[in-house]
Amino acid sequence: MDALRRIRTQCSAQANTVTNFINPTNSEEQGYRTIGESIANIPDDSTKQYILILSGGTVYREKVLVSKSKPFVTIRSDDPINPAIIVWNDTAATLGKDSKPLGVDGSSTMTVESDYFIAYGVVFRNDVAAAAKKKKAEGEAPALRVLGTKATFYNCTIEGGQGALYDQMGLHYFKSCTIRGTIDFIFGSAKSFYEDCTIVSVNNMEEIMTLPVAPPQLDIHDNPIKVAPGEGGFSFKTCTITGEGQQIFLGRMGTPSIYSYTQIAKEVVPIIYDKGNIFMPSNMTGRRCATFKCYGPGLEKIWHVKLRYAEAIYFLGTDFINGDSWILSIPPTDAETLLSV
């Protein structure tokens, strides 16, 4: 199905596009000064494509929510080489207006609940670790939380601490993105395809060494290659996984994770999550993952299921997330290009 047909299938009334330019220096007459203000003025359940243009190199210090009632929203930098930055500094322990901890669901810098969301050339950042001068953070510090379905991220950077990317649920596509975090920094129950991404561990060893070791009954894991059509899982293709220290604490044990044609520079060790707590596995080696034609010194240190092509093919393309029906080859910029893709 070609891109034009995909758009028409998604929404026959999507021919008209609304473009908003957002700059903190704008006057009332010039346009919106914050991303939140622009999103608030999008009509609920609109079938138009709303494109929010951010000024390259500009820091937008705000917490952003794209609610379920705002589908077909695109956020992009006008200069992807010098991307706009959306940044905030909440953690799971930050107290909300009700004086209760926000928890991981409420602490992300950017939360996307809507469907058909697109981001292009944007940095999503949680800078609480930098603000604390690399002291131990209080729980998760996510930069991006995604729970709407059919979301795409092109050339974006996601930077945070523990739980930097909360890939919570839905079908998602990450293309040529950079993801940086400390431990458990890509997690969730979504079904996502990561292609040509760079994944960087920036471990705070002081924080990691304080984590308890999992009790034996929790230190059990299933074969991650068993991904049923309706279940979540992460497929990493032609990615680079690297970072500081001897090991990379990328995600959680039990989350199906498949790596293909990927450079694995360090040993990948999944943490264990149970009832709101995270643990180090009792045996720090021999963790299981599934691979197909991967390479790198980290691959030699992990026990991995080597897939045959017939087993791997399901994970090697956007068919893994039914992407042929909704992924656009390039992010739309205006009505003309939207209709001529």
From TrEMBL:
It catalyses: [(1->4)-alpha-D-galacturonosyl methyl ester](n) + n H2O = [(1->4)-alpha-D-galacturonosyl](n) + n methanol + n H(+). It comes from the Eukaryota. GO terms for molecular function: pectinesterase activity. The active site is at residue 184. One of its GO terms (biological process) is pectin catabolic process. The keyword Hydrolase applies. Residues 29-246 form the Pectinesterase catalytic domain. InterPro entries: Pectin_lyas_fold, Pectin_lyase_fold/virulence, Pectinesterase_Asp_AS, Pectinesterase_cat. Its EC number is 3.1.1.11. The keyword Plastid does not apply. Keywords: Aspartyl esterase, Hydrolase. Pathway: Glycan metabolism; pectin degradation; 2-dehydro-3-deoxy-D-gluconate from pectin: step 1/5. Belongs to the pectinesterase family. PANTHER family: ACYL-COA THIOESTER HYDROLASE YBHC-RELATED, OS11G0659600 PROTEIN. This is Pectinesterase. It comes from Zea mays (Maize). The lineage of its organism: Eukaryota, Viridiplantae, Streptophyta, Embryophyta, Tracheophyta.
